What does this fold into?
Amino acid sequence: MKEILIIDDDKHINAMLEETLENSGFAVTKAFSGTQASKLLKSGKGFDLILLDLMLPGISGEELLKLIEDIPVIVVSAKADTADKVGLLLGGAADYITKPFDMDELLARITVQLRRYENAKDSSKLTYKDITLDNITHIAASQGGEVKLTRTEYAILKLLMLNSERAVAKLTILEKISADTPDCTEDSLKIHIHNLRKKLREISGKEYISSVWGIGFMLKEKS
It folds into this structure.
């Protein structure tokens, strides 16, 4: 049974979500503050998905998002400004739905994200266009051959492939790969990206990693 963590200080919304999710076959854990949620995340209890409000007592939703790794997060917030949505999606959120929301739509979004992350977790290989990344050997392959990636190059490419055709902020990349590559800094990231671009070009003959001005990088085949 998939377990969902609801983080929302509104007791009515929390209870409504709990009832609907449990009736849909999910296990539910609830947190009513950012501080409580932080303790749950650090406890080691495994969650399959998180529904995250932003306006929380204690630690804010934006700060919590930075602490969450390898769990899909759907932001559920009354903030409807496009800039807020874009910033959170670039900051690592998997999806964003605005309050008030339709429960059937939220359930559909939850299903999509669980399926997407389950497929990525279970697969030993990731694929984008004609690029394949082996999660065990750290080898990137294409029609023109294959190339062994460094630990940092692999971590970067994996993150970009999981977010293909979406801009990923530089700080998000550094935060998400920090556990595996603590030596990677904002300055050295440019070098790793340069080397990764070169290796992908050598095996595919194409440019795959684009710089997104003022934000970061995106995996997208250039036409």
Notes: The chain has two domains: 3-121, 123-219. The chain is about 45% helix and 20% strand. The first strand starts at residue 3 and ends at 7. The CA atoms of residues 85 and 158 lie 23 Å apart.
